[in-house]
Amino acid sequence: MKIIACIKQVPDTTEVKVDPRTHTLIRDGVPSILNPYDHYAVEECVRIKGEIGEGSVTVITMGPPQARSALMRCLALGADDAVLISDKAFAGSDTWATAYTLSLAIRKLGSFDMVFCGQQAIDGDTAQVGPELAQQLGIPQATYVEKIEIDNKHKLTIHKQTEDGYHILEAKAPVMLALLPPTSFQPEHPPMSSILKAKKKPFKVWDAKTLGGDESKFGLEGSFTQVIKTYTPPPRGECEIIEEDAKEAAKKLGEILLKHEALIKR
Amino acid sequence: MKEFCASEIVPKTEKLEDTRKMPKDIIKTLANFELLGMVIDPEYGGLGTDVVTAGIAVEELARADPSCSIPVLFLVGTSWGHVLNKYGTEEAKKEILPKAIKGEQIIGIATTESDIGSDLGSMKTKISKKGDKYVVNGEKMYISGVAEAVEYGGGHVTLAKMTPEKGTRGMSLFYLPLKDTPGITPTYVEDIGREAISCGGFDIKNVEIPKHYLIGEENKGFYIVHEGYELARGLISLVCAGAAAKALENGIAYIKERKAFGRPIGKYEGIQFKLAEHHVRIQALRDLGYKALWTYDQEIQGNASRFDVSMAIAMAKSVAPIWAFDAINDVMQWQGAFGYTKECEDQKAWRAVRSFTLAEGSSEIMKLIIARELLGKEFLAYR
User: What is the distance between the alpha carbons of residues B361 and B31, in angstroms, rounded to a whole number?
Assistant: First the structure.
C-alpha cells in the first residue's frame, strides 16, 4: 500500500507575538515546526503501514528550501522518503494553487492508495488544501478523521469526528483523508537514532520545471485569493457568554442582537 | 536538539538546583531521546555517533539548563562511557553500557583525591591483585555524580596506583560500582554551582572488584584516562559556549528594553563594545570547541595524531570557561542589582562555568599542555 502524506512547515504559533503598534504577527526569530496536525497524520501513516506490514509512506511539502527540516522530522517519525517541492514560481500560492501543485507531484509519484493531510495548518487554519487536493486528484475524501482501521482487503473504516461523537465511514482506496488528532494528542520527539537514520533516507527536490503542468496555475498567478493584510483585531467591547442550551441560547442571542441595531448593520 | 530541549528540558530547569542531585526523570528523559551513550557502539545499545555530534548535543543542553548540571551528567557519561566502550572488557561492556544507555545507571570518573588533582602521580589510592580479583583502598574526592551512583546505581571509572614505584607508569584504570558495594562510604560537599548534580567523594576500604572491571591493561591507566579527559574537555568547551551564548541572548533582550537616562542601555557604546567582544569570543569558542572534537574524531579514524588532539583540546578548554565567565559576568552587570539576585537566570550559568576553570584539568594545566606541545617535553616544569 502506497501512502502519501502532505505536510507543511509552520511558525511555532506558541512563540509568535503580536506587534503592539501594527497588530501584525512578529515572525522574525520564530522557530519553524512541523504542523502538529500533519505530525499526527504522519504518525498515523506509519502506524497503518506497520499494521499492514508492507508498503511505503512518502511525505511531500511545498515550501522554501528551509522546509526540508519539517520533511526530515517526518522521515525521523518513520516515513520512507520525502519530496520537497520548491521554486520561486510557487510563491504566493493560495490553497487552490497549493493543492494544484501538490496534485502534480502526487501524480508524478505514480499510483497511490491513500493521501493523508493534516486537517488544517496552525498558521492559516483554512482546512482547504486537503479537500481541494482530493478534488484535483478526482478521488473521494473524508475530513476530521481521527482514526482509520484497515482490513486485509484494504477496506478502510474511518472514524470521523463530529461535535457530539463520530461518524463511521467506509471507503476504498484511493482516498484523501484529512486528519484531526484527538485532544489528548501530544507530538513526541522521535529518538536520536531515528533522526540520524532520517538523514540516509531518499530525499528529492522538485522545481516547477520538474513538475510540469500549467505554469499559469502556479503561485500568485494561479491563486484566486490573495492575502492583503494579516493582523490581530484589537479587543473591543464586552463579552457575554450565553450558557443555556441551544434553543434558549439562540433566543437570547436574537434578543441581544435586536437590542444592538448598529451591530447588525455593521 | 533545540526542539527537544525547549519542550523536555527547559520546563524542568527552574527549580532544578534545589534537588542537589539529578532527578531520575531527567536521566530517563535523556535516555528516551537516546542521548546517553550516543557515542557507544550499537551492539551495546548506543548510536555509534562521532563526538562532534555529542558536542552539538551538549551545547544545546547547556543553553537549556543554565545550571549546567544536565550537561555535566551528559558529558561525564559520554566521555567515560567512550573509554569503557574502547578499553573495557567484553564482559564489563555488556554488563554496564546497556544500563547506562537506558538511564538505569550512571557512569562517572574518579581520579581526584583530597590532596591531588592535576598531579595524578601523587595519588594515594591503590589497587592490588588478590586471586582472581582486585582489591582497592584509598579515597576519592570532589567527584561528580556520587549520590546518583550510590542511590540509582552505577559507578565510576577510577584510577589507582598498582605499581607505585613506577609512578604514573604504574597506574591502572577500573570500574568501581558504588551502589551497595561493601567498603564504600560516600561523603558529600556542596558545590557553589551546577548544584543539580551531586558532588562528593568516597572512602574505599578493602573493596573487591572482579577482574573484568579492569579498563585496558594493568599499569596503562594513566594514558587511557587522558583519552577520557580530552573528550570531556572538548565537550566542556561547548558547554561554556552554549551557556555564554544563552546568557548573551538574555543580555541582548534586556539591553534593548532597559532604559537609563532616557534611552535603552543597548544604545550606549560601553555596552555595545562589550556585546561585540563577547559575541566574537563565543563564536571563536564554538570554532575552537568543534575543531577540537573534530580532531578527536579524526584521531579515532587514524587521520590525526595524539599531538593534534592534545593541542586542539587544550586550546579550546584553556579559554572556554574564562571567556564564558567574562561574558556571563557582563550580562549580569548590565542587569544591575537584579543581576545579583537569585531571580536572575544568568547567575546559575555564572556559578556553573566558574567550575570549568578547574574541572577535568585546570586552565593552567591546559596552558602547560599547549606550551609542552610547542616547546617539547624537555621543557616540562615538573620534570
Answer: 28
More reliable by pLDDT, A18 or A66: A66
pLDDT tens by residue, B286-309: 999 999 999 999 999 999 999 999
Q: What is the mean pLDDT of residues B157-168?
A: 95
Whether residue B44 is found in the same domain as residue B168: no
Average pLDDT over residues B239-244: 98
Judgement on whether residues A156 and A256 belong to the same structural domain of the protein? no
A27 has pLDDT over 70: no
| pLDDT greater than 60 at residue B75 | yes
User: Do residue B163 and residue B53 come from a single domain?
Assistant: no
Alpha-carbon Rg for chain B, nearest whole angstrom, is 21
Q: Which residues in chain B touch residue A193, judged by CB atoms under 8 angstroms apart?
A: 34, 47
Q: Do A196 and B4 touch (CB under 8 A)?
A: no
State whether A169 and A44 are in the same domain.
Answer: yes
Q: Out of B33, B38, B49, whose CB is closest to A189?
A: B33
Residue B120 to residues B112, B140, B168, B171: CA-CA distances in angstroms? 8, 12, 7, 9
Is the Cβ pair A191, B33 closer than 8 Å?
Answer: yes
Are both A97 and A189 inside the same structural domain? yes
State the pLDDT at residue A257: 84
Instruction: Write out the residue range of the structural domain in which residue B322 sits.
Output: 221-379
Asked if residue A250 is part of any domain, the answer here is yes
Same domain, residue pair B375 and B265: yes
Q: Enumerate residues 4 to 43 of chain B having a beta carbon within 8 A of any beta carbon in chain A.
A: 4, 6-8, 32-35, 38
Q: What local confidence, expressed as pLDDT, does residue A259 receive?
A: 83
Q: For A34, which residue in chain B has the nearest alpha carbon?
A: B3
Containing domain of residue A212, as a range? Answer: 2-217
For residues B332-338, average pLDDT: 96
**How large is the average pLDDT for residues B93-109?**
97
What separation in angstroms does the CA of B357 have from each of B113, B312, B314? 18, 17, 12
- Alpha-helix runs per DSSP H in chain A: 36-52, 68-77, 95-109, 129-137, 192-198, 208-211, 246-259, 261-265
Tally the domains of chain A. 2
Do residues B15 and B77 both lie within one domain?
A: yes
Shared domain for B92 and B142, answered yes or no, is no
Block residue for cell numbers 617535553: B377
Distance from CA of B18 to the nearest CA of A (A): 27
Residues of A in Cβ contact (< 8 Å) with B7: 189
> Nearest chain A Cα to B50, which residue?
A196
Q: How far is A31 from chain B (nearest CA, A)?
A: 9
ipTM of predicted complex: 0.78
Shared-domain flag, residues B121 and B206: yes
Q: Is the pLDDT of residue A266 over 60?
A: no
DSSP B5: I
Confidence band for B337, pLDDT divided at 50, 70 and 90 = very high
The CATH code of the domain that includes B258 is 1.20.140.10
- Per residue in B165-197, pLDDT tens? 999 999 999 999 999 999 999 999 999 999 999
CATH number at residue A26: 3.40.50.620
Judged by CB atoms closer than 8 Å, whether chains meet at B3 and A192 is answered as no
Same domain, yes or no, for A138 and A44? yes
- Closest chain A residue to B8 measured between Cα atoms? A189
Same structural domain for residues A256 and A138? no
Q: Which residue of B has its CA nearest to A33?
A: B3
| A-B contacts at Cβ under 8 angstroms | 21
Residue A101 sits in the same domain as residue A206: yes
Q: Are B34 and A189 in contact (CB < 8 Å)?
A: no
Distance from CA of A193 to the nearest CA of B (A): 6
pLDDT tens-digit series, residues B244-269: 999 999 999 999 999 999 999 999 99
Residues pairing with B160 in the sheet: B172
Residue A80's alpha-carbon distances to A57, A69, A198, B331, in angstroms, are 5, 15, 8, 46
Chain B residues close to A191, C-beta within 8 Å: 32-34
Q: Report residue B152 as a C-alpha cell.
A: 540509582
Cell numbers representing residue B202 in the block: 568516597
